[in-house]
Design goal:
- It is a single chain.
- The protein has about 300 residues and is of the alpha+beta class.
- The chain contains 12 helices and 6 strands.
- Helix content is about 45%, strand content about 20%.
- The chain is extended and about 90 Å long.
- The model is unreliable at about 1-30 and about 240-245 (pLDDT under 50).
Length: about 300
């Protein structure tokens, strides 16, 4: 039996015009800006939206103070090169990062042992790109089918159970050669739910989250040239592993490496014994630490010989 449930997020089926921009930049709540910074943000927005400025030239049109402001707000920790690429995508797609249409998201890459940044588009950004085409004719509310129960942990209440949809289906309408055509896509819970550790919003608003995935799929199907290679944040949640532990372990390795370089013989021998029995690091990390310790011991021996 199919249960059709309307999305309560206000996504709706009507089109959303990019002209309906708020005058005050819609920055994340944890980012506080002074009146002077708010004025600077409006200047940055005008530069990004100026059709006479080429995507590759946006970064060069900004003053250093404006670049640093972006790094404090929408591109925290980004390098100049990362911010330059981000701005090119914003400009090329006609998306406004201050309206949460597009994000520069930091992710820990265990292969390089460093944080890298990926560009992700919000569902509002998807809708804005579709609207810009002039062929977008709205979409249906998500229709949900099936039901699954998920259990998750909370610090205050312990284990909790919530009902989630089995799948969500959305139809996007596009005007093709004067005809209103349907493009339908379905997102299944099992393919997108990122699990207990990563899925806070998925546990508190499961229908909204899966509905966004289905809508992004349908929009990409309807507008492949405009949205090819772009993915909504919710679509990528499952692909993001819990990197906090990996990053913490790598930071610990870096700290120990610095300690090894300054340690004496007794400290090195004690550290080696601890490293050999620890379970904090994987085999590769332990091998690197032991190698560094033995190299330092040999260096000290050669100096005292």
């Amino acid at each position: 039996m199919t249960t059709k449930t309307k999305d309560l997020s206000g996504q709706g089926s009507s089109t959303q015009s990019k002209a309906q921009k708020v005058t005050t930049p819609n920055i994340e709540s944890q980012v506080e800006t002074s009146p002077e910074e708010t004025k600077e943000i409006k200047v940055i927005e005008r530069i990004i939206e100026n059709r006479e400025v080429a995507p590759a030239d946006v970064f060069g049109k900004l003053q250093r103070s404006q670049i640093e402001l972006m790094k404090r707000t929408i591109a925290k920790g980004a390098s100049d090169d990362e911010l330059k690429m981000f701005l090119q995508v914003c400009k090329g797609s006609n998306l406004n990062p201050f309206l949460k249409q597009v994000f520069l998201v930091p992710r820990w890459d265990s292969k390089v042992g460093a944080e890298i940044r990926a560009i992700q588009v919000s569902i509002d950004g998807f809708r804005a790109i579709a609207e810009e085409s002039g062929a977008y004719a709205g979409n249906t509310d998500p229709e949900f089918e099936g039901e699954t129960n998920i259990e998750y942990s909370t610090k205050s209440d312990g284990k909790k159970t919530v009902s989630a949809p089995g799948k969500a289906t959305v139809t996007v309408y596009k005007i093709v050669q004067g005809l209103k055509c349907e493009f339908t896509a379905t997102a299944r819970w099992a393919e997108y739910y990122p699990g207990d550790k990563q899925g806070f919003m998925w546990k508190t608003k499961p229908y909204i989250m899966l509905g966004k995935c289905a809508e992004a799929l349908a929009l990409r199907k309807a507008f492949p040239k405009l949205l090819s290679g772009m993915y909504a944040t919710e679509e990528l949640d499952k692909g993001q592993t819990d990197t906090t532990g990996a990053q913490t372990a790598q930071n610990g390795l870096n700290t120990l490496m610095a300690m090894i370089d300054k340690a004496n013989i007794d400290q090195l021998l004690e550290l080696k014994a601890k490293v050999e029995i620890t379970t904090k690091y994987d085999a590769k990390g332990k091998a690197a630490l032991i190698k560094a310790i033995e190299s330092k011991l040999n260096e000290i021996d050669s100096k005292t010989a």
